[in-house]
Amino acid sequence: MAVLTGLLYGALDTTFALRLYEMGLYDEARYELERIDNPEIDEIDLYIARCHIESGDLNNSIIKLNLIIDRTRDYDVLKSAAIDLAALELYRGNPKMALDCIERAMARGAEIPSGNLLFIKNIADNNWHDIGIKPPKRKSPELARWMSLILPGSGQFYAGNLGNGLKSLGINSALWTLIVSGIEKGYYSRAFFAFFFLAPRYWLGATDKSAEIAYEHNLQEYLRACREAARELEW
After folding, report:
1. How many structural domains comprise the chain?
2. Percent helix, strand, coil in the chain (nearest 5)?
């Protein structure tokens, strides 16, 4: 009788928690799910992980999903956890980790749609055209660096940051005006100070900044492509 009563209360708690989840009350749903003391129901852990995802706590969701993949005996939960985790890893720009979790789940018997495995392999190999995703548009950090060295601001323009490029162009124009006018008017100490102390910071510093902007652009483009791919996974 006590066992039957416990199962009844557990079922009611689970139904209530899942209703909270469907209503978008993810923190409240997670709290209710964590109160349910039934380690045999792996679906509870799956929804706890999903609550973490919806609340923006990706690290805890990844930890939880990895644990599910390694220990669950429920093949439906295993499949769902693997695809959830693969989508998360793609969202974070880690296609190799996404591929790893799919292969781990398949090794434990999960029936993952074959399209998902090929899809993620293509992403890991940067075969974007084969999966119909717009490839990341890459900017060369070295080219951005050289462009800024020759014409301050041009490297930032190339890397896609108009505001920073205009700022660099303005500051360096004023700096070189100061240097040239100092030499022409005999203010050599001023020209010396501007060239040896200000130029390394604003002229040479701009070359590093343009390369940094190009790296950031490449990262964001890669994440954009991976996140588009994550939405295309077969469930």
Report:
1. 2
2. 80, 0, 20
Distance CA 65, CA 225 (A): 23
In this structure, is residue 184 part of a structural domain? yes
Residue 131's nearest CA partner among 122, 140, 142 is 122
Q: Mind listing the pLDDT tens digit for each residue in 110-160?
A: 888 878 888 888 888 888 888 888 889 999 999 999 999 898 889 999 999
Tell me the residue range of the domain where 43 lies. 2-132
Domain stops at, among 132, 154, 189: 132
Residues 6+ positions from 204 with CB-CB distance below 8 Å: 149
Residue 229 lies in a domain: no
Q: Residue 233: phi, psi to the nearest 5?
A: -65, 145
pLDDT for 67-98, tens place per residue? 999 999 899 999 999 999 999 999 988 999 99
Which of 39, 32, 27 has its CA nearest to residue 15? 32
- DSSP code string of 54-106: HTT-HHHHHHHHHHHHHH---HHHHHHHHHHHHHHHHHTT-HHHHHHHHHHHH
pTM attached to this predicted model: 0.71
Are 57 and 151 part of one and the same domain?
no
Model confidence pLDDT, tens digit, residues 150-196: 988 899 999 999 998 898 888 888 888 878 888 878 877 877 777 77
Higher pLDDT, 122 or 2: 122
Q: What is the 3-state secondary structure (H, E, C) of 151-164?
A: CCCHHHHHHCCHHH
